[in-house]
Write a structure and sequence with these properties.
CATH architecture of chain C: Orthogonal Bundle
CATH topology of chain C: MetI-like fold
CATH topology of the largest domain in chain B: Rossmann fold
CATH superfamily of chain C: MetI-like
CATH superfamily of the largest domain in chain B: P-loop containing nucleotide triphosphate hydrolases
CATH class of the largest domain in chain B: Alpha Beta
Chains: A mainly alpha (about 325), B alpha/beta (about 325), C mainly alpha (about 270)
Strand order of the largest sheet of chain B: 7-8-9-3-10-11-13-12
Helix content of chain B: 25-40%
CATH class of chain C: Mainly Alpha
Shape of chain C: elongated
Number of helices of chain C: 9
Distance between the termini of chain C: 19 Å
Distance between the termini of chain B: 27 Å
Oligomer: heterotrimer
Structural class of chain C: mainly alpha
Order of helices and strands of chain C: HHHHHHHHH
Number of strands of chain B: 13
Strand content of chain B: 15-25%
Radius of gyration of chain C: 22 Å
Largest interface: A-C, 46 and 37 residues
CATH architecture of the largest domain in chain B: 3-Layer(aba) Sandwich
Largest sheet of chain B: 8 strands, mixed
Radius of gyration of chain B: 21 Å
Number of domains of chain B: 2
Chain lengths: ~325, ~325, ~270
């Protein structure tokens, strides 16, 4: 287990580096020196402009730019945002929290509600309820996140004004409001973006859990457990759900990229001040240092998630744990 | 002494999606006394496994008991029990062991925990005591070093050891009846002998009634008190083991015995029974064995032969042999 | 054919027809009716009009054409690149194949949206064709992974080994036996990829960086509809329903193809 973990972590680091390199080189290698054009488009003072040209290697070999990028990144310096005139790292840090909140809550719900629904629809395979669930998940999966988001806004923020339509918190909230009130305020703002994310992505864990449970449901050990008088609920959790967990956790790693891209659009719909809406607006304003910085961070997050999923999965499977 | 288990007119019917149904087990009756080992012998598809599954009420989806079926365990009629009623019997009065030890144990649960689960299913007991009992059971089924084996994972055990664990789990509820469905088929020959010996020993020590379901006449010869031969859903012969091997009455039984290669007889070719086993959806009219039977006559095609008593404690379902050779 | 498959095929044909012929049947999407701003659906404007007075139905139909063409072109690009690389990576065990396999795995590691955002940021305003190309060049890894899996399976199969025993060279084996075998799976992946491409293009257009004015696009229409959600919700429904229908159609079609091709193969 130990040596495997080291190798796997090294793999994740390598993929993060390669992914980041791709993003940096992509810009360098495009024809027409786009960076030069972008920098030129903005009215910057000559000193800043020179510094930017220097850093982003207008005219320098791509490999040098890449190595410099990593050298700087390790020290926490990801350049300066063209649109905000602040260090990229600072901007990213400021937007990290809301994304972690939204993403974390989505993962939590998807993996509790999602696995429960998946198990339920496997056990009640032939009922109308299960078939209805399959139909609903198919439709929600086909609808893009931003469409779901706007529908929810119209339904629950405009038609029946239950939740705020956008933002992270109420700008008019008094500065001396209690922590309790603040938290409540954020949660109210979180409601619709969270509901959107869940609706857009829960179909995947439901389906994965369902197919995994359908397989274990027919296993001999399930029949053997019933034969010794184990109660149906214990059979469902201990003998059908638990052995089916492995594949679901593994697939979590593969499903993370979907979560990230979903976040980009959903955050934009709700003006949720996270990394997703950041990278989207940065792309729109062609703020390349910011786009690359955010992109690198998101790639790292995805790799980290995949690594954790693989580790958890290996721990869950006794056959692999001890090797 | 009245039998521990008395099964009368057991039938299992399957309903298919297309609406039509077919019968897989047709009017099977048997009785087992405490401490007896009865073998239910037949080829795949004859319905013997379903017969075993019917006893603790574990028939698969789509299968139903026939209306006339009666299963009486120690005076209680099991066919009228609800699911939760049956659950009181499973493990506690009737225990079952299945064919494939590789998948009979939950791969993500320690072996000992599965034994403990079986113990706790039927009585209130402290976890520590249950664990202690689990170790005892594992030792009883012949697992060396039971104290540390109790924490092993299923994949760490060999097939034979897993089957021993299954037996320990089966014994956890202190059952009166053990139904063993092809318990040795998936094991190596030497391990087969060990497991059978273990079952026999447990039977004697605990006065366990055992229903051994198998297709292998060889293992029957050494262990069973009585044998029931099944073909195409029906019992075609039933008697003591000795009598079956000495003087088989049903042509099918004779064919099975003749097909066993013998080391003391030189013969030019292996004997086999002509034809193939019919599937439950296309059983022949009349005696289901008649298309393959060397003794078949016209009447065999028209009527299903009943089990008649040829000799004391020896019944066979063949109109030809029972008429000619019977008492 | 299964019920859902039938829906998929019918819907796909319907949408294709609308995309091809529709624009001639409906009005001009760019014409601004001088008086009817933000009109709710009525006889003369079945889906209402937008803030500039343009007919929403006309814009939705014209948008269909652009979106579908972009999705199709990008899928064709992804299919060609993906199948080629996948077959090369899986059709043999030489170092090149191994390197390609690693490359495919690595390519799958960067989320497609991020790549697209970087590309868009770097290249600025894109016409639909350039957008289609970019979508295709970021979409090949999924197809390549599948094609590689098929190629690996085929490479071990009897008839390919037999062909090798008869002296067929590697390129010949790849071209004549493995490629045709991997193609059906690639096609299924590609059809499902159309749905992904549609959603991505709509998403990018919604963010303002995909298909830009004056070309109408469903994503762009949804973006324009957002500020008017309270007063004129119908602006959202036209393009949203069209988008969902198109995605569902492509997905069901892909599933139908998969069901069709599998029994033949296995």
């Amino acid at each position: 287990m130990g040596s495997w973990a080291v190798r796997r972590t090294a793999g994740a680091v390598l993929l993060t580096l390669l992914g980041s390199a791709t993003l940096v080189l992509l810009v360098q290698l495009l024809p027409g020196e786009p960076l030069a054009a972008i920098i030129g488009d903005r009215a910057l003072d000559p000193v800043t402009e020179a510094a930017l040209r220097e850093r982003w290697g207008v005219g320098r070999p791509p490999l040098t730019v890449l190595l410099d990028f990593f050298a700087n990144a390790v020290r926490g310096d990801l350049g300066v945002s063209l649109s905000e005139q602040r260090p990229v790292a600072e901007v990213l840090l400021g937007r990290l929290g809301p994304t972690l909140l939204l993403g974390g809550a989505t993962l939590l719900i998807n993996f509790t509600l999602g696995t429960w629904l998946g198990l339920w629809s496997a056990l009640r395979r032939d009922t109308a309820g299960a078939k209805l669930l399959t139909g609903i998940t198919l439709v929600s999966y086909a609808m893009p996140g931003f469409v779901i988001g706007l529908l929810l806004v119209w339904l629950l923020a405009i038609n029946w004004p239950l939740f705020p339509a956008a933002g992270y918190s109420d700008p008019l909230l008094a500065s001396d409001a209690s922590a309790w009130t603040r938290t409540g305020d954020v949660l109210r703002h979180l409601a619709l973006p969270l509901a959107t994310m869940v609706l857009a992505t829960i179909a995947v864990p439901i389906r994965m859990q369902r197919s995994a449970a359908l397989e274990t449901r027919d296993a001999t050990w399930v029949r053997a457990a019933i034969a010794r008088g184990v109660t149906p609920s214990r059979v469902a959790w201990r003998h059908i759900w638990r052995p089916a967990l492995g594949p679901v956790v593994t697939l979590l790693g593969l499903w993370l990229p979907m979560l990230v891209s979903g976040a980009i659009f959903v955050e934009s719909v709700f003006a949720w001040p996270g990394l997703g809406s950041l990278i989207a607006s940065a792309a729109a304003s062609r703020d390349i240092p910011l786009v690359i910085g955010a992109g690198v961070l998101l790639v790292a997050v995805v790799q980290l998630g995949s690594l954790l999923a693989d580790i958890v999965n290996r721990l869950l499977d006794p056959a692999q744990r001890n090797r | 002494m009245s039998p521990l288990l008395e099964v009368t007119n057991l039938s299992v019917e399957f309903r298919r999606d297309s609406g039509d149904s077919f019968i897989a087990v047709d009017n099977v009756s048997l009785a087992i006394n405490a401490g007896e080992l009865i073998a239910l012998v037949g080829e795949s598809g004859c319905g013997k496994s379903l017969t075993g599954l019917a006893l603790p009420g574990l028939l698969p989806d789509g299968a139903r008991l026939g209306e006339q079926s009666r299963i009486v365990l120690d005076g209680t009629e099991l066919t009228v029990l609800s699911e939760s009623g049956l659950r009181q019997y499973r493990g506690r009065r009737i225990a079952m062991v299945f064919q494939d030890p590789a998948s009979s144990l939950n791969p993500v649960m320690r072996v000992g925990d599965q034994v403990v689960e079986a113990i706790e299913a039927h009585r209130k007991i402290a976890r520590q005591q249950a664990r202690q009992r689990a170790v005892e059971l594992l030792a009883e089924v012949g697992i060396a070093d039971a104290g540390s084996m109790v924490d092993a994972w299923p994949h760490e055990l060999s097939g034979g050891m897993r089957q021993r664990v299954m037996l320990a789990i089966a014994l956890a509820g202190e059952p009166d009846l053990l139904v063993a469905d092809e318990p040795t088929t998936a094991l190596d020959v030497t391990v087969q002998a060990q497991i059978l010996e273990l079952i026999d020993r447990l039977r004697i020590q605990r006065s366990l009634a055992v229903l051994l379901i198998t297709h292998d006449l060889g293992i029957v010869a050494s262990r069973a008190d009585r044998v029931l031969v099944m073909y195409a859903g029906r019992i075609v012969e039933q008697t003591t083991t000795a009598r079956l091997f000495d003087a088989p009455m049903h042509p099918y039984t004779r064919g099975l015995l003749a097909a066993i290669p013998r080391i003391d007889v030189t013969s030019p070719a292996l004997q086999s029974i002509a034809g193939t086993v019919p599937s439950p959806t296309s059983w022949p009219e009349g005696c289901r064995f008649h298309p393959r039977c060397p003794l078949g006559i016209e009447q065999c095609r028209r009527v299903i032969p009943p089990l008649v008593e040829v000799n004391p404690d020896h019944r066979a379902a063949c109109i030809v042999t029972t008429a000619v050779e019977g008492a | 054919m299964k019920f859902t498959a039938r829906i998929g095929v019918t819907l796909s044909i319907l949408l294709a027809a609308v995309a091809m012929v529709g624009p001639w049947l409906v009005g001009d999407p760019t014409v601004a009716s001088g008086s009817d701003f933000l009109a709710s659906p009525s006889g003369s404007h079945l889906l209402g009009t937008d803030p500039f007075g343009r007919d929403v139905l006309a814009r939705t139909v014209h948008g269909a054409r652009v979106s579908l063409i972009v999705a199709l072109v990008s899928t064709v690009v992804a299919l060609m690149v993906g199948v080629a690389l996948g077959v090369l990576a899986g059709g043999h065990h030489n170092p090149v194949a191994r390197a390609l396999s690693h490359f495919i795995n690595f390519a799958l590691a960067v989320p497609r949206v991020i790549l697209l955002l970087v590309l868009v940021a770097a290249t600025g305003r894109l016409g639909p064709w350039a957008l289609a190309l970019m979508l295709g060049l970021t979409g090949w890894p999924t197809i390549a992974r599948l094609a590689r899996g098929e190629a690996l399976r085929l490479e071990h199969s009897g008839f390919v080994t037999a062909s090798e025993a008869l002296g067929a060279s590697l390129p010949r084996r790849l071209l004549r036996e493995i490629l045709p075998g991997a193609l059906p799976a690639g096609l299924v992946a590609a059809t499902l990829g159309i749905a992904d491409a549609l959603l991505l293009e709509a998403g990018l257009s919604y963010l303002g960086i995909g298909i830009r004015p004056p070309h109408p696009s469903w994503g762009g229409m949804i973006l324009e509809a957002q500020p008017y959600l309270a007063q004129a919700p119908w602006l959202l429904f036209g393009p949203a329903v069209a988008l969902v229908m198109a995605t569902v159609a492509a997905t069901l079609l892909g599933e139908a193809l998969r069901a069709r091709l599998n029994p033949v193969q296995r």
